[in-house]
Structure to design on (485 residues):
C-alpha cells in the first residue's frame, strides 16, 4: 500500500495537538502508512505570500519536492495547508517560474516535477469510501446528531481545490453517516469560521464564529465536526468568547473528524484526547444509544 | 526664462508629477503581481461584498470599495488603511465573482504593495510574523504570533492562555526547527529580498 508524507501543519503541532494524535491513531487502525518528514516547512498560511510571493512559492515547491523525492503524496490535517500547497502547485505549472525555482532547489538535490499529490485527511477517508469505513465501525454512534462544518479552504475556489468537491459537497455527511451518527443540514455548514482574522479583528471574527455556532445549535446538533484544525480553534477555543459577543452561551462540543471516526472505531476517548477540548465532550457519551 | 521651456509648460511637472496624478497607475502596479492580474476586469457589481462574511459584521471590510479605490488610483489611502487587513481569506468572493476578478487575491496583492511601501499596523505585523518565524524555525511560532501581532493588547489573551495551559494545549515555547533550515534560509536570500 501507498505511503504518505505526513504534513500535520503548524496548528496540529502546537495548539491542536489532539488532532495530530487522534489522526495518527485512526491512520494506524486503517492500516494507512505515513511517515513524518522533519524537513517540511510551514505552507505560509496565506500570510508569507503577502510579504514574499515568490519565496512562498519556492518553499512550497521545496515541500512538494521533498515528498516527490520520497515517492509519496502529502497528507495534511489543515485546510489552509491544503489550499496553500494546492495554490502553489497550480502556480508552478508556469514553466519559466518552475525552472527558476528548480535551479535553486537542485543545489540541495531536489527537483519539483509536480508528481506529488496533496491530500487532506478528509480526501483520504473519501478515497477509502464510507462503505469500507462502515465495515470497520465497532461502536456505532447511533443517536448522535452531528453538524458537519467543512471549512473554507477545502471547498473554495473550485479551480484550485479540484473537482473532489462540488459546490454542494456531501462527503462529510456521508462519513458521519458511516459512523452511525446522524448528519444535520444547516445553512452555515460551508461558511467561514473567521479564524484568519482572530488576531487582527477579534470582534468580527467572533461574530462569524457565533453565526456558525448559531446555525449548528438551531438545527439541534449535539456536536459539530470539522476536518480543519484551524476551524477547531475558532469554534472550540473561542466558543466562550463568541457566546459573549452574541450575548448568549453556547455548549456545542466540536470534534476533529479523526476523533469522530476514532470513536466509532472503538478507540478509547483518552487515546483521542477528547479531554483536551475547551467545551466538554463528556455528556456526548450518554447520548450514544 | 524661456517661456517655451518644458518646465514652464508644465510638461516636466506632469512627468514627475504631484503624487495624486501618477497614482492613477496604481492598478498597473497591482496587475503586475500574479495575484492582482485581473483587477481591470472588475465591473463593480458588488457580488464580492454581498458574499463577504466580514462585511456582514464590519462595514470597513468592503472588498468592492477596496477595488474601487485602487482603480481610482487612491494608492496611499488604500495601502495605509486598515480595511485591506480585514479579509478573512474565506475565498467566497473568489468563488462567486462571475468576472473572475478574484477580489480576495487582489486584496492579497494590495497587501504585498502595502508591506513593500512600509505600511504599518496590526495587519502588517501579523503578516510579517510568518516570514520571521519561518526564517528562524521553518515553522510558525504560535506562542509569539499573538504577542507580535497584538503587542501591549496581549493582556486580553491571558485567560485563554491559562485555559490552554490547563488543557495541555499551550504551544511549545519554541517550535521544532525544520531539518535543513540552511536550505530554507538560502531560499530566503534568493527569493525574499527584503528579509535580513
Amino acid at each position: 500500500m501507498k505511503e504518505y508524507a505526513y504534513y500535520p501543519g503548524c496548528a496540529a503541532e502546537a495548539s491542536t495537538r489532539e488532532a495530530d494524535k487522534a489522526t495518527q491513531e485512526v491512520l494506524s487502525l486503517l492500516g494507512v502508512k505515513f511517515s513524518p518528514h522533519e524537513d517540511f516547512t510551514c505552507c505560509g498560511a496565506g500570510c508569507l505570500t503577502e510579504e514574499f510571493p515568490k519565496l512562498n512559492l519556492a518553499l512550497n515547491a521545496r515541500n512538494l519536492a521533498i515528498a516527490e523525492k520520497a515517492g509519496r503524496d502529502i497528507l495534511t490535517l489543515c485546510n489552509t495547508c491544503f489550499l496553500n500547497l494546492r495554490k502553489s502547485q497550480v502556480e508552478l505549472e508556469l514553466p519559466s517560474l518552475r525552472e527558476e525555482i528548480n535551479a535553486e532547489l537542485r543545489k540541495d538535490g531536489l527537483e519539483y516535477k509536480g508528481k506529488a499529490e496533496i491530500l487532506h485527511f478528509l480526501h483520504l477517508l473519501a478515497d477509502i469510501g464510507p462503505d469500507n469505513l462502515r465495515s470497520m465501525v465497532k461502536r456505532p454512534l447511533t443517536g448522535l446528531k452531528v453538524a458537519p462544518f467543512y471549512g473554507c479552504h477545502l471547498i473554495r475556489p473550485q479551480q484550485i481545490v479540484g473537482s473532489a468537491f462540488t459546490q454542494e459537497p456531501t462527503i462529510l455527511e456521508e462519513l458521519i453517516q458511516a459512523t452511525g451518527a446522524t448528519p444535520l443540514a444547516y445553512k452555515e455548514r460551508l461558511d467561514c469560521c473567521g479564524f484568519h482574522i482572530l488576531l487582527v479583528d477579534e470582534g468580527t471574527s467572533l461574530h462569524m464564529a457565533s453565526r456558525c455556532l448559531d446555525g449548528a445549535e438551531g438545527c439541534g446538533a449535539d456536536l459539530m465536526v470539522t476536518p480543519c484544525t484551524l476551524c477547531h480553534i475558532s469554534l472550540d477555543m473561542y466558543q466562550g468568547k463568541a457566546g459573549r459577543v452574541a450575548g448568549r452561551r453556547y455548549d456545542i462540543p466540536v470534534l476533529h473528524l479523526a476523533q469522530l471516526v476514532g470513536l466509532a472505531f472503538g478507540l478509547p476517548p483518552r487515546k483521542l484526547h477528547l479531554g483536551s477540548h475547551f467545551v466538554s465532550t463528556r455528556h456526548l457519551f450518554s447520548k450514544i444509544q | 526664462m524661456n517661456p517655451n521651456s518644458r518646465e514652464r509648460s508644465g510638461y516636466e511637472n506632469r512627468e514627475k508629477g504631484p503624487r495624486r496624478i501618477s497614482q492613477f497607475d496604481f492598478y498597473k502596479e497591482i496587475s503586475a503581481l500574479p495575484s492582482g492580474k485581473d483587477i481591470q476586469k472588475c465591473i463593480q457589481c458588488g457580488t464580492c461584498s454581498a458574499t463577504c462574511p466580514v462585511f456582514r459584521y464590519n462595514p470597513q471590510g468592503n472588498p468592492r470599495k477596496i477595488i474601487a479605490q485602487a482603480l481610482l488610483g487612491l494608492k496611499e489611502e488604500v495601502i495605509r488603511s486598515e480595511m485591506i487587513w480585514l479579509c478573512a481569506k474565506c475565498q467566497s468572493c473568489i468563488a462567486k465573482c462571475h468576472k473572475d476578478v478574484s477580489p480576495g487575491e487582489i486584496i492579497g496583492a494590495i497587501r504585498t504593495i502595502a508591506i513593500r511601501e512600509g505600511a504599518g499596523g496590526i495587519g502588517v505585523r501579523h503578516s510579517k510574523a510568518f516570514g520571521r518565524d519561518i526564517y528562524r524555525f521553518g515553522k510558525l511560532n504560535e506562542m509569539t504570533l499573538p504577542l507580535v501581532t497584538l503587542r501591549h493588547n496581549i493582556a486580553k489573551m491571558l485567560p485563554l492562555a491559562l485555559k490552554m495551559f490547563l488543557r495541555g494545549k499551550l504551544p511549545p515555547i519554541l517550535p521544532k526547527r525544520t531539518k535543513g533550515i540552511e536550505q530554507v534560509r538560502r531560499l530566503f536570500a534568493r527569493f525574499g529580498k527584503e528579509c535580513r
